Amino acid sequence: MSLLSDPRWGEALSHLPDYLGNHVRVSLAALAIGLAVSLPLAILTRNRPVPRAVLLALASIVQTVPGLALLALFYPLLLLAASVTLAWFGVSFSAFGFLPAMLALALYSMLPVLRNGITGLNGIDPALIEAAKGVGMTPRQSLVMVELPLALPVMMAGIRTAAVWVIGTATLSTPIGQTSLGNYIFAGLQTQNWVFVLFGCAASALLALAVDQLLGLIESGLRHRSRLRTALGGVGIAALVAATLVPTMARSSSGYVVGAKTFAEQYVLSALMRDRLQAAGLSATARSGLGSSVIFEALKAGDIDLYVDYSGTLWANQLHRTDIKPRAELLAELKTALARDNITLLGELGFENAYALVIPKKRAEALGIRSIADLAAHASTLSIAGDYEFFSRPEWAALQKAYGLQFRAQRQMQPDFMYAAVASGEVDVIAGYTSDGLIAKYDLVTLDDPKHAIPPYDAILLLAPKRAGDERLKSALQPLLGKIDIATMREANLRASGNDANSSPDAVAKWLWGKVGQR
Amino acid sequence: MPSKPAISYQKVTRSFGSLKAVDHVSLDVAEGEFLAIVGGSGSGKTTLLRLANRLIEADAGTITVEGENVQDVDPVALRRRIGYVFQSGGLFPHLSVADNIGITPRLLGEPANAIAMRVDELLELVQLDRTAHRDRLPEALSGGQRQRVGVARALAARPRIVLMDEPFGALDPLTRDALGDDYHSLHRKLGLTTVMITHDMTEAILLADRIAVMRGGRLLAQGTPAELSNSSEAYVLELLRTPRRQVERLNALLPASGAA
């Protein structure tokens, strides 16, 4: 099948109005706020060198924070703010999605606007400011009639830079729940759907380019005092914004929101649940690519209605427990703890997605290794790779302690690449996931954990507090509970890791339902 | 000399740090008079000029304009009723010739059609072609044209007093001569009081009724050119001799039957 006739282009295109509209909306709002704050600050500090220097330093520091981290930071910050306003004034707001994304992006947009604003205002010939005074202008008239118009081209260049930065960085707002063109990129990277990745990158680059060119037109119009060019640029921007916003404005976003974290299994399960709800006549959408720390809070706050998490993850991250209990006991205790937050643990899906140490089957046989205890004897000559969080998680500490593991080297890797790396011998052992389809594909084995250092990771279905008594929802989801065994999930995950039209989360979810629905 | 001076400085002092830019200066400018302030760079002549419309504030002494102490007048209102011509024009580059000229009437809230008529009147007065120059930006004008616009702008709100800060200094000699003469006739025709800064004694002698000589912040001498030639100050005499000495040198260098 040729690349161009790939049906995934069509699927990508069908998401475009939604993703693009939301991307433009959050970028626009962020820029508006950024400008509304930065321009007055630039004006206020134009004759005050000390506050000006402090301000520029602060803006520069913000700029050094990586975009992803800045966006992620705003979520807990706003959660805290929301709980404070709830306690003090009895009102709360959603710390999820639009608000944190907009605020973080607004902060991000400030440096170029501030710097160019200040440069523009300070670069004006002092003789002209003197002349403004001399012809009888008040300081305010001098600012409005002389200084701002003269600084405008330089300011506009800063606004242009800010717009491009914001549009580019907005792709990173997907993990905190803001739909954007980043949804293509995150989903594509996780499910190895390069069509989506390409589409997302191209769409955001084109958007940034278009806005940059239109703002450039306005800038050149201002610089050369051409009303025509300024007007053309303005109309172009307005048309672009209208064209992207109108389709999303018209759409109502009511109904159930199914959350998904940022990996393939979650994309597939959220698509499956969405399909089940729709089949039961409920309106539902999937909100995927949410950060693992964001998604639980989003459920608690009711920003999403349901999602699948894993018992061991909540045990460690939400209950802050480091002890390890047998599977059933841990689940029961978790259920009680979640109920205190009014979160319903509806049930287990039937499989575990636990961390496991994974090595090629041949290698295990050659070394005579079957369990982690066997591995410990060889560890000092071996290297290990894990995902970005594994080595800072309690499981790793527990493993090291229980078995006295000391590896020669440890590396962090993008989860999708770990399996190929261990299969090719680039690393010796990886900390993989038990439900991953690549384990079978690369002929790898998971090592036993005789000392039970790694807690159980049952996939469990959670419902938001506001859905606690929603029987229609519960009965729509009932057919999934206990029906998805590890072999089926592995196969589904393997399918999702393919790079063709049948590997899209939607297609795999349908396949999975075909298997599960008959049980 | 009429009883009430247009501008009066009484023992005025202004320092910048330890530098006394204007040091105990007392000077009257009579109504209808054309006064030139002459002096080298850093002599305090620009500071003295700007004290009159409060672009710079005095540390000590009293300044009155048309009988009023400038400290009792709102500085913005004061500046709107005194014309000011800046060195090399000081035109706003983003405004057309017409908008530059009409700026002070606009600040005073005059109606747009009245301003438009006034602009046309002023363009004629400073001898600029209305259709050719009205809507141009300053960057499209020659240096002489820009300074004509600067003069028109200073006159737009019908001031009785005009302050000029080396208005013709940066122009080529021919333009400068013509502009000086043209302004001088405007000064007479409109009955203005003009204070002009120049570092060129020849220009001062040719245009001004009286000359004030500044040096190191002090007013060394004031009077008509004839009065100044009786001064006891060597610097003043030296200044006065300069134009004549230049003429002698020119005569020696050029054939007597030259075109001029």
UniProtKB/TrEMBL annotation, chain B:
Which species does the entry assign this protein to? Answer: Bradyrhizobium stylosanthis
Q: Which residues form the ABC transporter domain?
A: 7-241
Protein family according to the UniProt entry: Belongs to the ABC transporter superfamily.
Would the keyword ATP-binding be found if you checked this record's keyword annotation? yes
**Keywords noted in UniProt:** ATP-binding, Nucleotide-binding, Transport
Q: Please give a single GO biological process term from the UniProt record.
A: quaternary ammonium group transport
Physiological role? Involved in beta-(1-->2)glucan export. Transmembrane domains (TMD) form a pore in the inner membrane and the ATP-binding domain (NBD) is responsible for energy generation.
One matching Pfam family: ABC_tran
Q: Which domain of life is it from?
A: Bacteria
Name-wise, this protein is Osmoprotectant transport system ATP-binding protein
An example molecular function term from Gene Ontology annotations = ATP hydrolysis activity
